[in-house]
């Protein structure tokens, strides 16, 4: 399952010549790397970084309830890059260029930062 699979589901079937439909069920998919709906999430700094240098990105949540979990992703990369409010990448390589996002979760809802473009020079 992926987050976009959340929604209303039902079954339709036929017994003899009678069609029948089940009650609708709401499915909500949560991610262990999920954030807070409607809550601003910001990241900094992005931009350009020199080959071999260190990149540090920060994720800030304006408000939240309870303990928050963080997750960093780079577009096109499947595995999470980090699970703390700060993402530190040492010895940047050319393939580290791309769009980075931070997701924050309070366990019930999810928010995601705008994409941050990082270019390795």
From TrEMBL:
Cleavable signal peptide: none
Domain Ig-like intervals: 40-119
UniProt cross-references to Pfam families, sorted A to Z: Ig_2 (PF13895)
Protein name: FCRL2 protein
Underlying gene: Fcrl2_9
């Amino acid at each position: 399952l992926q987050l976009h699979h959340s929604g209303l589901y039902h079954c339709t079937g036929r017994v003899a010549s009678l069609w029948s439909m089940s009650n609708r069920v709401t499915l909500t998919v949560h991610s262990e790397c999920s954030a807070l709906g409607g809550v601003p999430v910001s990241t900094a700094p992005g931009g350009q970084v020199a080959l071999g240098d260190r990149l540090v990105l920060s994720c800030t949540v304006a408000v939240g309830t309870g303990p928050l979990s963080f997750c960093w992703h780079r577009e096109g990369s499947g595995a999470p890059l980090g699970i703390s409010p700060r993402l530190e990448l040492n010895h940047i390589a050319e393939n580290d260029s791309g769009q980075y996002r931070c997701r924050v979760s309070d366990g019930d809802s999810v928010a995601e930062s705008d994409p941050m473009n990082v270019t390795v020079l």
